[in-house]
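Hi everyone,

Forwarding the result from last night's run.
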Amino acid sequence: MAKRLVAMLMAAALTLSLAACGNGGSSGSTADSSTSSESSASDSAAADSSDASSEAEDLKESELVTLNIVTMAGGKEESGIAQVEEAMDKILEEKFNVNVKLSFLPFSSYADQISLMLSSGEGVDLAWTGWLINKPQNIADGNLMPLDDLLAEYGQGIVDILGENVVEIHRNAADGKLYYLPSWQGLCGERRGWLVVTEIAELAGDTWIDDTKAALNKWRNNYSGIEDFQAVLDQATKYLAAAKEAGKLGAGINTGRAFGWSMYNGMYSFLGVGGAEIGITYCDGTFTVKDGVAGEHYKLYAKTMADWYKEGYIRSDIMSVDTSTLTMPKNGEITDTTYVFSCDPYLTEADQEAAIADAGMDMTYLPIEENAYLILGGDTSYAIPYCADEPERAMMVLNAIYSQPDLYNTLIYGIEGEDYTKNADGTITTSYVGASPTADDSYGIQRWIIGSCKNALINNGTDPNYYADLEALEATAQVNPFLNFTFDRTNVEGICASILNVYYEYGPQIDNGVAGDNWEELYNNYMAARKDAGIEELVTEFQNQLNAYIEANNITSW
């Protein structure tokens, strides 16, 4: 690729040189000028025809190169890796004159090893840059290459797979450039719902299920005031009362999962500051930063948790019990370690069905959000480091992995007949179940590591409709314009630490209602402690940074 660029520059320089020489001499005749123009037009037409006919070969270089692709996966047999490399080489050599070297680094040491490779300038052409990697720091250190021009020239297959929306939300907030591309495994989330025991729901009233669906929809999707949240809490209270009366309360309600996320009425926070609980209400066009704890929504939540604790709907030992031992029903049983009410982001019908099957009894799912939200996919992504020897061909290969199912599945699953068996229905059978190969398998990497799971062969333990369902949800997902906003704590680091300590003192007591009749005193003390810790200064700093982001990115609405 470097040779091609040099050749293009030389050709451009030669053209300019020739033009300069021509202009420096005497004026040519009209005939000479006409002949020159006709000749240029003819040459241009011939060049266009030549370009069209050779477009397929244009990306193939004359020199064979080997790209180093670094990924996170351990315990692979060398023979298995070599077979996969050979199979990929057959595809890539024909298209780009490229071979690959697959460098697998174990989960436990990936961050340290890849950081050393990048800082030392070792030749890495493609690198996994998921949740183990501090991408903002690597961008600031100059370890990752901006991908905009490379993506525009050689990565349109990636854009087609991800979609323009997804590409745009992954731009770096500081300079608006792309430094990594998410590996697609479904980029939507936060489509939550309640999961309840059907028998208890029916005991709560003949119309309880329909009434609760209506209340949840009004509150979350068509909110008009605090009475909407009160209606939701009333429905939950009826259900818990029915469970207690029937002797089926078990461990009661999982407060953190059922209401912990919702106490601020859909407030969206970008702080990443534990216990701060400030942000802007979703779809509030004024973009006003609020203290969620100071709102009426939270105060009603605090009162209701206290009422539920007094009624026994929350375990009396909730502050001391190991909550990791408390689960939703398993094997059709309700015990004192079994919640009968929880809330989770069951994105697809398959997720809901799996949760119900796991319970071993008839469960009812009550959706809260109409649509999912588009989320960032940086937790598993790929980048081209600055130390890459062949960045152009690296983008070509990454584009091929995203857009060519045969190449992707070879990299993910290995060799047919050796690492997996193809079934008559088009699915495959692997030695492992789902997306998680182990060190005992001759080959196989997690399909969410690189490329797009849309191209994945369906193996044993995988719902054949799962990724299609996620793709459909993503098509209607709401796009949050602040996904790339990052709060800079530098000026308020001490305040953030103080507020977190205040939360540890008061928050869990309110979340679990343990103050009982004294809940309001506890709430007021919490508010006063937050004020003393500097919550107002934090709100102001957050608002100032958010305003600057809104102006820089020309955001006018959700």
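The longest helix spans residues 30-53.

Cheers,
N.
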